[in-house]
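Predict the holo structure. Ligand: biotin.
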Amino acid sequence: MQIKKIYYQEIDSTNKEIERINSSEGTVLIAETQTLGKGQSGRSWLSEKGGLYFSILVKPKENIHLIPLISGLSVVNTINKLLILEKSNISIKWPNDVFYGNKKISGTLVESKFKGNKIEHCIVGVGININQNKFPEFDDNIPTSIKIISGKEINKELVLDEYLNNFFYYYEQLSNSNKIIEEVNNLLYMKNKIITVFTSGKEIYGNLLGLNIDGALILKDENKKEHIIYSGRILK
Ligand code: BTN
């Protein structure tokens, strides 16, 4: 895959801009700051200096539901390669948030465009908290940064390159869904604990058993009924 990086000082959202400029597959658009960074579920993503904000345009032919998972895995592998942190503290809050302990380091917003039922492209927008010293107060998903955790400032370009190496490695292996899902399963946040998931307009509460072969959440409720959740948001 030919990777082409484009840098901006400031943009509204790298996800929006990469779409506006009609990018080819393998384009990576990076901004120092975003004025209207987009998060999941219509929320905004605080994008101050010090964080890494980028979007990748890809045209997957299969298993696009695994794209969020491979982004989370790529962030985890990147952190483990570049820093000596307590590995057992790093987890993936399904489908792609990366946590250190109970604080969020990174999130991914995947936006897909279809023509009929054919995929035209996926935009993989990634935010990683790297050199920020502090964050405003958040009500949920309390953020932290690599600098706050490790006490060290790290080079954002190194993080980007390591992420991209990992991302495209997994991307070439999208057909091998078992391996990808197993890796995420081993890193799953709140596994075997009671969680609440918001899905299809309602909240479901139960024990998080893990992921099924499609990468969906398996939740066992208090009546021992198993729920398979393909899309939704873990609330707590
Ligand atoms: C989340 O809510 O966890 C997803 C956050 C995704 C943020 C990134 S920052 C780069 C890209 N551009 C955006 O506007 N959003 C994504």
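The longest strand covers residues 103-115. The chain has a mean pLDDT of 94.
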